[in-house]
Structures are given as structure tokens and as C-alpha cells.
Amino acid sequence: MTLTAQANLPMKRPLLRRVLQAFVDIRELTLIVLIAAIIIVMSNVNPYFLSFSNFRAVAVGMAPTAIIVIGMAILLASGGFDLSVGSVMALSSTVVAMLLLTGMPIPLAVLCGLVLGGIVGVVNGLLVTGLGINPLIATLGTMSIARGIALVLTEGFSVSSLPATFAWIGKADIGGFPVIVLFTILLVVLFDLAVRHTRFFRQVYFIGANEKAAMLSGIHVTRVRIILYALTGILAALAGVLLASRLMSGTPTAGNGIELQVLAAAVIGGASLRGGEGTILGAFLGVVFVALINNTMTMLAVSIYWQMIVIGGVLVTAVALDMLIRGKRG
């Protein structure tokens, strides 16, 4: 081996490390490339994949998940997470549907559903910050309670025959584009800008990076955490309302397993389970990526059960890779 070749050998590992770090640092760009690759490959495999009707179906289907991931991404950045979002989504949709059947005006019924989600979020926040319960245990408990209440209220049946006007936001179009999708994109843009440019949300990253240092700098960590859990609950409830509007029924089993998809999307999008990392745009692109994977497997006639295995594998791989890369960088 020549001296030149020997001199070049040590450069291979630093180059690989730089590439891996770029994957973490520019996650949004990486996801855009992966999403484009999926679209190009699938458009050649199945011409229907590139159709407007297919993209419309994918966008409408992923809208509730995209709304929930906003709250989850912010919560992960603070060092917490919430497993109850799917149950809150179901509980809110059923409660709003039941209130509408009593003749309650739509705006008031929707407001009650959002308040209910906020209450569950506050309970989660108090359990985690006030009693010091691990977020996994606390939100796992409220997940079971919220789902149980939804099932008890409805006896396991969907609540249908809702007022026709309630379907507007879930089924209406503006210029050929679904209102629910336009509303979701608007929320993503607003929260992404808020996270990047407002003082309150910048505090979230300080807390997630170093909670003790954040407290010493004057940040009210407990108050911020409770607000974040409440926000996550409200967004999950909003997703439930939109789903009820689209399906024109409140379903107590709605959102079953959506926690896995939301966590997978947020981590793929750059959020870290250690806290202090992640963006709303990255989390949203993670949702798009996961939705396209599901759509791809559906078009390839892959069993729904295998789809669950694949999404679980994607989550584990994303978390493992994230921990590995961040560990090497740190």
C-alpha cells in the first residue's frame, strides 16, 4: 500500500460521519428527497399513483395525523411526549357528535370538544409536572381512560345522523382543494413560524436541552409544560372534530394506533426523544413520508397487518439511527 493510500484511509470515517450528521442537521431536505424518490418510483410502477385523486385521498387521510403531530413535535422538543392523543381524538369526536344530536349549535359543540381535549392535556401536564409521574405511565393511563369513556358513552357504536352543515369543513372544497387539507397546511405554517420566531416556543427548546439550566435562567418550566400538554390535547381534539366532520359520525375507536404514526413521523422529521430538537415542518414532512409509504403498500396490495409491521420498523429504525448519530455527534 502506498503512502498516499495510507494517508487517505483515515479520511473515510470522518466523511461518513459528516454525511450522517448532515442527515440529522438537514432532515427536511433529506425527507423532501426521499418523498420525491417515492413519487418517481411509484409513478413508474403504478400510473394511478401520480393522479390527483390519489394525492387528494392521501392528503385528506393524513390531515388529522398532521394536526396532531404539530403538538407532538413541540412536546418532544420540550422533552415530553403524549400517548393519549388517539384516545383524545376519539373522545372529542364522539362527544361533539353527541352534543350535535341534542341540538347544540355547531360552533358551541366544537368548542366543547376542544375544551375537553385541553382538559385532558392539562391533566397529563399536572400528572407529569405536579406528581412527577413518568410521561409514559401518565399518558398511557389517560389514553386508557379517555378511550374507555368514549366507549362507555357510545356503548361501542358510532354516533351518526349528524347535521348536514357539520360536513362543510370535512368535505367541502375551495378551488378544487379540500378545506380540511388547506386548514391543516395553514396550521402547519403558522405553528412552524411561531416555533421559529416567538419567545414562548423558543423556551421549549431550552427546556428540552437542559431543564435545570432553563429553570435557573428564569423559565417557568412547569407552566410551560402544562401549556404544551394542553395544546397537544386541543390539537388532538381538533383532529377528532375534523374526522367526525369528514365521516359525519363520531367513532369511539377512531385514532386507534395513531400514536405510533405520530411518533414515527415526528422522529423521522428530526424530533429527538431526548428533547431540544425538531421542527414543525420536519414533523409534517415525516407525516407525508409515512402516508406515502402506507399508500405505496396499499397500491402494491400489501396486507394491512404488514403495513403495521413496516411502520413499527420505521419508527424503531428512525429512533435507533437518531440516537446513534446524535450520540456520536455529542
Structural class: mainly alpha
Residues in β-strands, percent: under 5%
Count of DSSP E strands?
A: 2
Overall body shape? globular
Structure, briefly:
It is built from 15 helices and 2 strands. It has 330 residues and is mainly alpha-helical.
Provide structural commentary:
- The protein is mainly α and 330 residues long.
- Helices cover 76% and strands 1% of the residues.
- It has helices at 3-8, 12-25, 27-45, 52-77, 85-101, 106-130, 135-154, 168-171, 179-197, 199-209, 211-216, 221-247, 258-268, 280-299, 304-329, and strands at 173-174, 177-178.
- The chain has a two-stranded antiparallel ribbon.
- A hairpin with a 2-residue loop joins strand 1 (173-174) and strand 2.
- Helix 4 packs across helix 10, helix 4 (52-77) runs antiparallel to helix 12 and helix 5 (85-101) packs antiparallel against helix 6.
- Residues 1-12 have low confidence and may be disordered.
Compile the SSE list and pairings:
Elements: H1 3-8, H2 12-25, H3 27-45, H4 52-77, H5 85-101, H6 106-130, H7 135-154, H8 168-171, E1 173-174, E2 177-178, H9 179-197, H10 199-209, H11 211-216, H12 221-247, H13 258-268, H14 280-299, H15 304-329
Antiparallel strand pairs: 1-2
Keywords:
single chain; 330 residues; mainly alpha; globular
